[in-house]
Amino acid sequence: MIESEDRSDADAKVVVDGVGKVYNSERQRVRALAGVDFTVADGEFVCLVGPSGCGKTTLFRTIAGLEAPTDGEVRLAGAPVTGPGTDRGMIFQEYGLFPWRTVRGNVAFGLEEQGVPEPDRSQRVEEMLGLVGLGEFAGAYPKELSGGMKQRVGIARALAVDPEILLADEPFGSVDAQTREMLHAELLRIWSETGKTVLFVTHDVEEAVTLADRVVVMAANPGRVNEVVDVDLDRPRERTASGFAEAVERIRTLIGD
């Protein structure tokens, strides 16, 4: 069953409350976002989709604390987001690994920045490498890894600091289809094992339906929420199933509207 769903922010981990964003330049004033409202519950997996230019990345950066909203606010566990913080783990399409650091060193970076003592840091890194299945590659450098392995390092690094929420901005957009399917399965396993809250930005509707409990469908000019679609399908989800196709078609129709 696929249905739209509205939820209150009483038990929400993330609340996006009337968020607007305006960019001003000498030539023009552009409203990228207007009145964006939605919530993400504790432990929920939510995907954000929409047409090009709908402000998905701007909204992601606002939730991450990398940009300040012009209007409204984002709240994480009840506290307003005023800048970046270790309560949000971030995964990007570009990997963002330090080429001079080993896999172990990349995963440890955030813990080092937090001043975590070495024994505790090493234990946490080993736990995270085990979680993503890269324990045997702890001493390897990024240039020695495949795209899928690099992205798993990114996931381990993001989770190492034990964030409140995992934010992912089209993280699998640069890998091939087979690797993407493998990473979907890995991410869902990790999400299930850790119970983390996940907000995942994608342009791929099938990817969103594969992963999400709910899909926030955005509209453009200015960027705003068109509808929030609940995806009530058992996991793992088969793309050939009728319910899957129904969800994909509904979301594509909303994007087209």
Structure explained in plain terms:
- It is a single chain.
- This protein has a 7-stranded mixed sheet, sandwiched between helices. Strands 3-2-5-6 form a 4-stranded antiparallel sheet, with helices on one face.
- The chain contains 7 helices and 11 strands.
- α2 runs parallel beside α4, α3 packs across α4 and α4 packs parallel to α5.
- β5 and β6 form a beta hairpin.
- The N terminus is likely disordered.
- The chain is an alpha/beta fold.
- Helix content is 34%, strand content 28%.
- The protein starts with a strand and ends with a helix.
Q: In a nutshell, what does this entry contain?
A:
The chain is α/β, with parallel strands linked by helices. It has helices at residues 56-64, 103-113, 118-131, 147-160, 177-194, 205-211, 242-256, and strands at 2-4, 12-24, 29-41, 45-49, 71-76, 79-80, 88-92, 165-169, 197-201, 214-219, 224-231. The longest helix is centred in the C-terminal third of the chain and has 18 residues, at 177-194.
Q: What are the segments in which pLDDT stays under 50 over at least 5 consecutive residues? A: 1-6
N/C terminus separation: 22 Å
Determine the oligomeric state from the structure: single chain
Q: What string, H for helix and E for strand, traces the elements in order?
A: EEEEHEEEHHHEHEHEEH
What percentage of the residues does DSSP assign to strands (E)? Answer: 25-35%
Q: For the CA atoms, what is the radius of gyration? A: 18 Å
Task: Give the rounded overall mean pLDDT.
Answer: 90
User: How many helices does DSSP assign?
Assistant: 7
Q: What is the overall silhouette?
A: globular
Largest sheet: 7 strands, mixed
Read across the widest sheet, the strand sequence of neighbours is 1-11-10-4-9-8-7
The strand count comes to 11
Helical content (DSSP H or I, runs of 4+): 25-40%
Instruction: Give the helix/strand class.
Output: alpha/beta
